[in-house]
From TrEMBL:
This is Amidohydrolase. Pfam families: Amidohydro_2. It comes from the Bacteria. The keyword Hydrolase applies. GO terms for molecular function: carboxy-lyase activity; hydrolase activity. Keywords: Hydrolase, Lyase. Residues 61-252 form the Amidohydrolase-related domain. It comes from Teichococcus wenyumeiae. InterPro entries: ACMSD (IPR032465), Amidohydro-rel (IPR006680), Metal_Hydrolase (IPR032466). Signal peptide: none annotated.
Amino acid sequence: MIVDCHVNVYEDRHLTPVHGEQVATRSGGFDPKADPDTVFQAMSGVDKAIIFTLRYGDSAGVSGDDEVTARAVAKYPQKFVGFAAVDPRRPDAMELLRHAVEDLGLRGVKFGPIYNGVHLADPRMVPIYEYCVKHDLPLTMHMGTTYARNAPLEMGRPIHVDEVARRYPDLKMIMAHMGHPWGEECIVVARKHPNVFCEVSALFYRPWQFYNTLVAAQEYNIAGRDKIFWGTDFPYAGVEESLEGLRNINHLVEGSRLPRVAQATIDGIIHSNPFAHWWHGKAPA
């Protein structure tokens, strides 16, 4: 079984002019289309995909809504599990979250502190954390840097997850992108807390950083412990290239005495199953 735990979904109308301006600064080209049908076709190589929209209109230029996520799940229920997207700056943030979960049937939450400019310790996050715990909702967080100029880098630091994890030990938290470039912060926080996990989406195209992060994960003994999950960050990366990048990670150090990423680590990430670990009760099938 292969599960893509990080897939973005939105429609063309959700893209703002900011999006084109910002992505021009990132390395590598990509097709920004991520409507439900496009995403379904892109996910043909995986068994399941966790999908969510983005409420990052003023930073990354995507101003989505949970309805598009719910429509995708309704159309392709055997493939997709949907998460709600939360922007704590909005006065109706909790109303939207309750609607997404209780009316639309979404099963988790996605939040980007760096994109919304809201620190994990901000008081506006408290009702979101409490709601997640009450309703058994995993919280996926963008952790790490971004190319978006209107985004405070400090809010992407994985070390800030430590305080929240200590305060809410029943809240399942997932640090996306292994907190790049602060991978070791991500690793030590995930090692410390049973309720904290991480995932490798959108890391393969920085192979040296990716390699070092996975070696560090082995040295800190979180590899092979159902702590690291696999994802793409579609449309910013695709399924096959993401799988190939992980499978071939040791090509970097062929002919050297540098440590290898163990095959067990690679296979464990590719076949990781969030549905067995991210929920306390009955996980989505």
